[in-house]
Amino acid sequence: MKSIKVMTVFGTRPEAIKMAPLIKQLEQTPGIESKVCVTAQHREMLDMVLDLFDIKPDYDLDIMKHGQTITDITTRVLKGLGEVFKNDRPDLVLVHGDTTTTFVGALAAFYEKIPVGHVEAGLRSGNVYSPYPEEMNRILTTQLATLHFAPTVQNFNNLNNNGISTDNIYITGNTVIDALLKVVKDSYKFNNEVIDNIDFEHKKVILMTCHRRENWGKPMEDIFLAVKEIAETYSDVEVVFPVHLNPQIQTLAQSILGNIPTIHLIEPLDYEPFVNILNKSYLILTDSGGVQEEAPSLGKPILVLRTETERPEAVEAGTVKVVGVNKDKIFEEASCLLTNIEAYNKMAKAQNPYGDGKASERIVKAIIEKFGI
Fold first, then answer.
1. pTM over the 0.85 mark
2. Which terminal residue of the chain, N or C, has fewer Cβ atoms less than 10 Å from its own Cβ?
């Protein structure tokens, strides 16, 4: 039987989560030799996911250094992947989404004349500086890729509008749903004293994430002030905020939210406890991209703390509402969902546009067909 070597490349926790079910699908598919290369653009948070899904990389570039810049990441990844591709010669390189590793992985493969498959292709916000640098990473990766695995019809249309042939675009759903459905359990037990003491049955728990570069400074300050007002206004609300390790975010969070007993500032969570607290929460406030895909699968309304989103299908489906970074607007929209059960149910029961948990199967099937296995 003809076989092909497929190398999956990623460097951050979100990429690892979304690539993990695809790697497992590749490993069990006859005719495919699966290889894994991590750049470790993020180190500790990446390793947690590798352990959870029992993934052992064939190559680990281990590039992360304290205080690294985007330029540092770009140059180290390009040099490291160039050597890996030159020596191992995969038939196809798979990259995911929009990180610096994604763009540079596609570029390094192009330099070696190796075809690239782009998982989670076709997302667009329409603003090259928001999110930064992710939006430009997506655009550049599109131009370098051969196969484009689009989660939704909207993503398909974005790619087609960018001049990509429909013969090379596959609508697959999002692999994040594949990963999510494998690890969420109603009986999950947290190993965290703060979370274990929360009364999820009688309290409306708001889970918040906030870390985007474009929100640093005044926007983030306004977000935190809105959350403070929410917590002080509604006695039945508790807020769980896993605070990003960035010192700037840590300092601001402690200064505004640190002394409010119903707001719990905790360390970043591993993927498994995070999605399980997502499952138990009432409402999600986030500037993250992946959470906009995960929470709808669990029936959780999301207020997006950004001025635009590259996931407009979630807005159109009604699972997500973009509320921006204005303090009063955030408070108003959150208050509506906390007090108006009809408005809450309208979002909670809207259909998730990101698929059924079988995206990895579809991607592997497309690869098999394209390579004639």
1. no
2. N
